[in-house]
Design a protein that fits this description.
Layout lengths: L1 E5 H15 L20 E6 L4 E5 L5 E2 L5 H9 L4 H7 L21 H9 L6 H16 L4 E2 L1 H13 L2 H7 L8 H12 L1 E3 L1 H12 L17 H11 L5 H8 L3 E3 L4 E6 L3 E6 L10 H13 L9 E5 L3
Parallel strand pairs: 1-10
Antiparallel strand pairs: 2-3, 2-9, 4-6, 5-6, 7-8, 8-9
Helix pairs in contact: 1-12, 2-4, 2-5, 2-10, 4-8, 5-8, 5-9, 6-8
Length: 312
């Protein structure tokens, strides 16, 4: 089976989602984030041919938070095989890793810190950060910016929670010095990007590693299915299963209010609104993306091969 979706249909779905949810005012902004634009709401959809559909505040930057795990996955899979990544994550389907250490009780993602620790080079904070930030820039096609105040707040939070010692006491495996891994994970979380930048990053994954706006081949296309699978498994914060059932879209969310998703071979999509639900997921962004996917009857699990016609 094959389906063709016109540009008119895509624009119509984005416009409709924006109009339906723009006046939603429930939820609350993460208190660590300052200077948030009141009632901000933006949607961006970037096709694999570089066509961009923006609505609302698609140019407003927000902290990417856990969405930073997407480019981190690309960096890791560019340096090791999926099998090696699974073993380094502490879980192996053949149980050869010898079991999992107790997960540290910390206010940051221990898995995110471990992922950063596994990125090479080891023992070289500047070198590791260069790999991380250059990878982000190449995926996005432009440079994200650091929220200095948020970086400071998250660093102070980690110090107050004694994160380094808690990780050590839990016997939780890292592959680099803990101070380096913790600091760089916090720094990547505090980077800010617009909905259009995040949608471009996801479109690069959807296009098997080719940035549709710059034309640059950022990574080997064989990585894309694994990156997309990781997004599907982990999903928006604490809502992976219901999200996949409702949308059929592999995606990640950040505490800044953005959600970014990949529909392989078709597009990258991102939406932003800072008001979060109790799980820490943007209410309007989630509603908008769910509506677009359902309106267009799209799903990563659908049997029909989808193409887009930007002439209509």
């Amino acid at each position: 089976m094959e389906r063709t979706i016109s540009l008119t249909e895509l624009r119509g779905a984005v416009d409709e989602a924006y109009e339906l949810f723009k006046d939603e005012h429930s939820g609350s902004v993460d208190p660590r984030i300052k200077n948030t634009k009141e009632n901000a709401f933006g949607i961006s959809l970037v096709l694999t041919d570089g066509t961009v559909i923006n609505k609302g505040d698609a140019d407003v930057p927000s902290p990417i938070g856990a969405i930073s795990k997407i480019p981190a996955s690309v960096a890791l899979l560019s340096q090791m095989s999926p099998a090696d990544l699974i073993k380094k994550s502490g879980t192996c389907c053949c149980r050869c890793s010898g079991g999992k250490a107790r997960k540290p009780d910390i206010p940051l993602s221990s898995h995110g810190i471990r992922a950063v620790s596994a990125i090479e080079p080891t023992g070289d904070a500047d070198g590791k950060w260069e790999v991380i930030i250059n990878n982000m820039i190449n995926l996005i096609g432009s440079a994200p910016e650091l929220d200095d105040d948020l970086y400071k707040a998250l660093t102070e939070e980690a110090a107050k929670a004694n994160v380094e010692n808690v990780i050590a006491e839990a016997g939780y495996t890292l592959y680099d010095d803990a101070p380096i891994a913790i600091d760089l994970y916090i720094r990547q979380m505090a980077m800010t990007a617009t909905s259009e930048q995040l949608a471009t990053m996801c479109a690069t994954i959807a296009a098997d590693g080719r940035n549709p706006k710059t034309g640059e081949h950022v990574f080997d296309g064989c990585i894309s299915p694994t990156v997309t699978a990781l997004m599907a498994v982990h999903g928006p914060h604490k809502e992976a299963k219901p999200w996949m059932v409702a949308t059929g879209l592999p995606a990640k969310s950040g505490f800044g209010g953005a959600i970014a998703g990949v529909l392989p071979g078709v597009f990258g999509i991102a939406a932003y609104s800072p008001e979060l639900n109790e799980a820490g997921v943007s209410i309007k962004a989630a509603q908008a993306i769910r509506h677009i996917m359902q309106k267009l009857q799209l799903s990563v699990f659908a049997s029909a091969k989808v193409s887009t016609d930007t002439t209509k």
